[in-house]
Structure formats: C-alpha cells, structure tokens
Amino acid sequence: MVVDVALVHRRLSIIDHKGGYQPMVHDGKRLREDLTYQPGDEPKLAHELATDLPLVGVVFNGCVYNHRVLRTELESSGCKFETDHSDTEVVVHGWRAWGAGLPQRLDSMHVAGIWDRVRGALVLTRDQTGQKPVYVIEMGPGLFAFASEAGALRASKPVSHVSSDRLGSCSELKHWLRFGWGKGMLSPSGGQVPPDGFMEVDSEHVSRLRSVQKRDRPKRGTDDLSEDRVQRLIRDAVRSCSDADVPIALLLSGGVDSGLLAGVSAELGLDISAVTVRMPADRCDESSVAAEIASHTGLRHHIVGCDSEPADDLVRLIHRLGLPFADSSLLPTYWACRAAAEVGKVTLVGDGGDELFAGYLRHTVFQERSIIRSMVSHVPSGLFPARDPSSRLDKLGRFSRAAKHGGYPDLLSIFDTEMLARLTGQAESVRGSTTGTCVDGPQYDFMNYLPHDLLRKSDTASMAVPIELRAPLLSRPIVNACLATPLNVLMPGGERKGLLKRVARRYLPNHIVDRPKRGFAIPVGQWFRSDYGSMRTLLYDHLQSSNPFPGLADAGVEINMEFIRQMLREHDAAGGKSINPWHGRDHSQRLYLLLVLSIWTHWIANLGRSAGIERR
Q1: Over 70: is that where the pLDDT of 432 sits?
Q2: Radius of gyration of the chain (CA)
Q3: What letter would DSSP give residue 482?
Q4: For residue range 27-62, what is the model confidence (pLDDT) as tens digits?
Q5: CA–CA gap between residue 285 and residue 299 (Å, rounded)
Q6: Which of 104, 184, 311, 386 is paired with 590 by a 20 to 30 Å CA distance?
Q7: CA–CA gap between residue 135 and residue 146 (Å, rounded)
Q8: Quick one: angle between helices 417-424 and 170-179, nearest 10?
Q9: d(CA 388, CA 80)
Q10: Lowest mean pLDDT among 119-128, 472-481, 482-491
C-alpha cells in the first residue's frame, strides 16, 4: 500500500485550457480540484486531505489523439465527464473502466502517473513507441520518485561524492560509449519505463509487470500494406494529431516525410503553418527546398533564422537531460524547435518514417542475399579511406567492419567494436550480433535506435523550449501495420522507403521525392577545426584537461587518453588539403561523444560536491 504520494505537474496547456488542470483527482463520483494545490495555495495539512474515498489521481504528459472517440465510448458505458474536452479526464475514467488494459486503447504519445488509492499503488505507463520518457529512481527505503527528465532525478538524489553508483555500471557506460545512447539513466538505483511499458509501484517493491512492446509486437508478414491504405492511415493520423486549442506548426525540411505531411495537411484543409529553420551551415540548410515544398502544397511558410550558440547550447542541454547523450543532431533539433515555437505550441514532425518504412541504407545491407554484405565482409576495412564520413568509401568501410565484428548494431555505433576496444583497452563481446547475421533492420531500429536516440532527442529539444511535438507517422495504426508488413513490400524492387515514396509522389514533385537523403545533421567535425560557436575551444578545454572524465575509472571504465590525442591529430589532418584519401581520419562523432561524456561526468561531479556541502 502506497501511504504517501505527491504528484507534481508543470503544464504546457494544449487541450482544454480551463478543464485540463493537473494533477487531476477523481473520487469515484466527481473531480476533486479541492484536493490539489494550485500556484499560490496555502499548504494543506495531512488531516485535511485524509479521506476514505476511492481516489484516482493522474499526472499526464503528452496527448491522447483518439481521446474524443474514447470519451464517447466511456460516456456510453455510464461515465460522467465534467471537463469540456480534456484528454487527461479520459485517462482518469479510462483507468477506472479498463485498468491495465487502458494503454492498449490509447493512440497517443504520452507518459502517465496514475495513483489508485483502492489498488494501493502508483502505476506508470508509456506510449507504444517511447515518444515521451519517464525515469524512475529509488531514493532510499520506501522512497521512490519519477520524472520526465533524468536530470531532475539526478539533481534530487543526495550524494556526497562521485562514485560508480552515480555513473552507472561498467557495462552500461560502455554501451553508451559505443552508441551514444542507452535504455536507462546510468544509475543502479534508477531506470526508465520501457516503450509500451507498464510499471506498478507499492510500498513493498517496484514491479515491471510487463512491457507490451516485447510481448505483443506485430509479426513481420502478417499484414500487407498498399499505397491506398498507407495514404488513408496517414490522413487519419494527421487529422487526429491536429486536435489542439493552440496554433499548430509543421516542422518542414527538404525530406520526404515532412513534405508528405505538408501535402496531406494541405489536402485536409488544416490550419497549419510550415516552419523551417535556416541552419548556420550551407551544407545542412534545406530552407530553399522546404520553401519549394510549401509553395507546391500551398501551406503558409515561415523561414526563421538560427541564432545559435553551439557550445553554450550543448552544455545547457546535456545538463538538462542528465545523460551523456551523443547524437549531435540534438543541437539543430533544438534550434528548429525554438524556431517552431514562434509559430505554434504544437508542431507536427516526420519522425519514424525511416524506421517504419525502411529508409536507411543499412536496411538493405544486412538482408538475406545482400551482395554488398557478402563483398565487403572479405575486404580489409583498412583499405577504405575515412576522411569524409559522407563518402561511399567511408560507408563501405563501416559495412566491412560491421560484417567482421559487431554485425548490424555496429552500423549504428559511434565507436564500433574495433574502435571501442582501442578506446577502453578491452575487446568487448557483442551479444546477439554475430558476423554475417541477417537482421530485420527496421524492426531493430524501431526497438532500439528510435526510442533511445531519435525520440529522446526530439523530446529533450522540444521540452527545452517548450513546445509539443507530434509525429503522425508514429500513430498506433501505422506502427502496427508497418511492423507486420513484409520488407519487400516496404521496399518494392529494393528501393529504400519505396512504398512511402510512392504515396509521397501523389503530393510532391518527383525531383523532391528522389532527392538524396540529407539527414538532420550539422558539420560538427568542421566546427571542431574552425572553432565555430566556440566548439573547438569547448572540445579541447574538456579533452585536454587534467581530469577529462571524473569518476569514470572508479566505475570500471579506463579511457586510453593517448588514443584520444591521436584522434584529435587525425581529425585535424583530415580537414587539410591533400590528394591522399588516407591522409587523416574524420572522428567528428567520436570526438563529440567524448566531449558530451566529459560535460556529463563533470556535471555529476558538481552535483556530488554540492550535496556534500549541503550536508555539512
């Protein structure tokens, strides 16, 4: 039985401004606003809150896209709603009606904390794809906390010094070193509710009752999407994702996914404005292509300048996130969200298109009978120059190393198996990724790369502004259908994302659909050489300091500093003029990961020192 519970919520008001207050408490008959605090309220004494009523209290972050449909269903079964159209109240009544079956009925991006007095427990649920995070930590005997940001929990746990407990286990840290992301929050006493997860907490224990995603994931080959059906599903998703009481924007790049959403939004006659951020580097600026898409679809279009401070922004974001998250596209995503906030508090994005519709080159390489995989696995990886990470030869080198060592996961890694061994001085065993293994790449990415990298990045960037990002392509019907559709249907004729592109051609010119994939990247390697935005200064201040990674050795991770110095030299050499393609080596993302790791470990160390001072 949970004896004491405090639910705290800071609201970004999107739906039903008046009625959607939180925490929302229901006593079995009516909502009880008198049992909650509002800003400026006098503290209530415990005896004033004592009641034997079957209370249910909810804190909720995100949006239930099908809340109006569920509301009608609940009303038909006798539920009495008091708010005008709050999706939070649907969660309250839905929990009373369906209990643990509620999450599977939600087409949403959400996390919810539900306190059920009769059950004597707190329940945490998370959306199917992991668009919204919820971190948990046991702060002591019988003391449990949860939050939507790991940084908030990190800062609240009293410790006197940096230790392995503060930095996580050796194996966890090496996973983050390899990929730049991970599943948890790097603390033995803390963790994260998994996508589609359901966690129940009472005074005796914390129990992960189930992760529906792992148990009930659709099986490949049990569905067969057609172009017409994809179009209908996307129309429905865009329509439901556009339910808001605030202005709505569409984050428009020059890519297929956001361009398709622009075309569908215009077709549906939605009051949506497209917004594009003009990036600080020409090679990653797609504002002119986005302007062409907006003109073609007829959407209002705003191009907003990027007033960027890369070094300062990076430090602030890592401190806020509280994790050594090493996807450098966090910075342009943050700048784009900041630009979108000038247009709408709700912003539609094209997240999920590549993972669900097989849009990456790696999705073809590790398939059965892949000619590329067969060829590169027999070629020494050292034969491939690595001066330019965007070149075909560099990509072939990555494929070669992956085929020999870590398999498909190495294609997603920043420090692949071979490089990680050089960094840490230890050869790592990589479970479940043997040489030559054929992998369902899109499904692997959906389970790992999407929630732990891409969606964490989007949530961190958007909440720092704050705005609410909604991804129509990640609606439950689209996700279930794509995961069950054979890969040869998603990639007709071997064309990556071919099925989605056929639908996109109904809305966009062929030359837009056929543009080479650019990605949402910044030239961080060039910035490390030129000191744009003080990025080189930040890099060298951290990596050449006397203690770049405080606490890391205590956690069991030794870093080869001579190898880091070698990478710094090679990276500078790769930026020089030379006709020799093997002159130098680009280490952009590896150096960025090490910079982020250094920023994070210093932040953790400062938290420890602050906690020690407070106790004295």
Answers
A1: no
A2: 25
A3: H
A4: 999 999 888 877 777 766 555 566 678 999 999 999
A5: 20
A6: 184
A7: 5
A8: 130
A9: 62
A10: 119-128
Q: What is the Cα 290 distance to its own chain's centre? A: 24
Q: What element of type H or E holds 463?
A: helix 455-463
> Residue for token digits 């960027």?
308
- Chain position carrying tokens 């992960």: 208
Give pLDDT, residue 114. 96
**Do 507 and 516 contact (CB within 8 A), yes or no?**
no
Selection from 440, 534, 453 nearest residue 490 by Cα: 440
Structure tokens at 551: 């606490």
Q: For 407, phi and psi rounded to 5 degrees?
A: 70, -155
Q: Phi and psi for 533 in degrees, rounded to 5? A: 60, 25
Which position has the token pair 């071979």? 418
Residue-wise DSSP of 72-113: HHHHHTT----SSS-HHHHHHHHHHHHGGGSGGG--EEEEEE
Backbone torsions φ then ψ of 362, nearest 5 degrees: -65, -20
CA-CA distance, 558 to 561, in Å (whole number)? 9
Complete DSSP assignment for 148-172:
S-HHHHHHHS--SS--HHHH--HHH
Place of tokens 């069950």: 484
237 pLDDT above the threshold of 70: yes
Distances (CA, A) of 244 to 47, 328, 549: 39, 31, 45
Strand bridging mode 190-192 / 135-140:
antiparallel
Instruction: Look up residue 137 and give its DSSP letter.
Output: E
As a whole number of angstroms, the distance between CA 193 and CA 393 comes to 40
Tokens of 403: 């085929």
Whole-model pTM: value is: 0.92
- Rounded Cα distance between 198 and 114, Å, is 11
Element housing 144 (H / E)? strand 143-147
Tokens in use for 577? Answer: 């003029």
Residues 6+ apart with CB under 8 A from 361: 395, 496
The DSSP element (H or E) to which 274 belongs, if any, is strand 272-278
Name the residue among 536, 473, 500 with its Cα closest to residue 241: 473
According to DSSP, residue 434 is labeled -
Burial class of residue 347, CB neighbours in 10 A (0-12, 13-18, 19+)? buried
**CB of 234 closer than 8 Å to CB of 472:** yes
- Residue 523's Cα: distance from chain center in Å? 21
Task: Answer whether the bond into residue 141 is a cis peptide, omega within 30°.
Answer: no
Number of H helices, E strands in the chain: 29, 14
Residue 178 CA, chain-centre distance (Å), reads 17
Interatomic CA distance for residues 434 and 430, integer angstroms: 8
Q: How far apart are CA 156 and CA 610, in angstroms?
A: 11
Distance from C-alpha of 344 to C-alpha of 577, rounded to nearest angstrom: 45
Tell me phi and psi for residue 471, to 5 degrees.
-115, 95
Question: Whose structure tokens read 């009481």?
Answer: 245
Query: What percent of the chain shows pLDDT beyond 90?
Result: 66
Structural domains in the chain, CATH included, are: 24-215 (3.60.20.10), 227-357+443-513 (3.40.50.620)
Mean pLDDT computed over every residue of the chain: 87
Angle between helices 417-424 and 561-574 (to 10 degrees): 130
